[in-house]
DNA sequence: CTCGACTATTCAGTGTTACTATGTACCAGT
DNA sequence: ACTGGTACATAGTAACACTGAATAGTCGAG
């Protein structure tokens, strides 16, 4: 991908991760793999972990340490009520943005 | 608006401004007013000017100083070929992002 | 049993971007 | 002159993603 995506991801990557977690609990390595799978080829691992710590400190997710069969223990994150609320706010903001952008795209004026 | 929009705008505001300029040339004050009009209520003036200087230095726009009837001369920006190309790349990146997000929104998985 | 491969997390340092808060300057109408 | 609207610029700050590396556990191959 390119630098454009990197900058565009600011603010949205957080929503993406929260949206993933709203479907089911997940841990960092898993989320990174998921993103890579979906075409976000150059999201650094470190980025995801930093983001997870951030949303944990803001109280949007609950964390549980789960032993793994093949590696160090996983930190499994799940969306809590506050996170759910924040995610809904995220979708509203996202809708607002996409609407404006769509207008610009077709109208160009 | 809120903090969420602020972060989401990083990377997209640039595209928004370029998209505006693809419709017709415009100057900073005008662009700011346009944005405010469209609901981007708390985009600071300074932000737009800084952005314009950035894209000018990257060679995406041409600039012309035009005297104004009511104030200091305007710096009118217009999209050049390189900017057009960059804008198209922006739309591709944007499409990629919206597709993923839309999938996440409906699927939640 | 050691080495490499894969799993899994963490962290220090950097660059980009938008915000806040000013400051400068020009013009019109009173 | 003074005020208000027009128009641009800039210094300092905060947030976020990236780079690059370090740390650590498990497993299979040689």
Q: How would you portray this structure in words?
A:
Two copies of one chain form a homodimer. By secondary structure, the first copy, chain A, is α+β, with helices and mostly antiparallel strands. Chain A is built from five helices and three strands. The first copy, chain A, has a three-stranded antiparallel sheet with strand order 1-3-2. In chain A, a hairpin with a 2-residue loop joins strand 2 and strand 3. In chain A, helix 2 packs across helix 5 and helix 3 crosses helix 4. Chain A is globular and about 55 Å long. The two termini of chain A are 28 Å apart. The model of chain A has no long low-confidence stretch (mean pLDDT 92). Chain B binds a DNA duplex (30 and 30 nucleotides) through helix 1, helix 3, helix 4 and strand 3.
Broad shape of chain A: globular
Question: How large is the count of helical segments of chain A?
Answer: 5
E-strand count of chain A: 3
Oligomer: homodimer
Strand content of chain A: 15-25%
Q: How do the helices and strands follow one another from N- to C-terminus of chain A?
A: HHEHHEEH
**Major sheet of chain A: size, sense and barrel closure?**
3 strands, antiparallel
Considering residues with a beta carbon less than 8 A from a beta carbon on another chain, report the largest interface and each chain's count. Answer: A-B, 37 and 37 residues
| CA-based gyration radius of chain A | 16 Å
- Kindly report the spatial arrangement of strands forming the biggest sheet of chain A: 1-3-2
Uncertain spans of chain A: none
Ends of chain A: how far apart? 28 Å
**Derived structural class of chain A:** alpha+beta
* Helix proportion of chain A: 55-70%
The average pLDDT score of chain A comes to 92
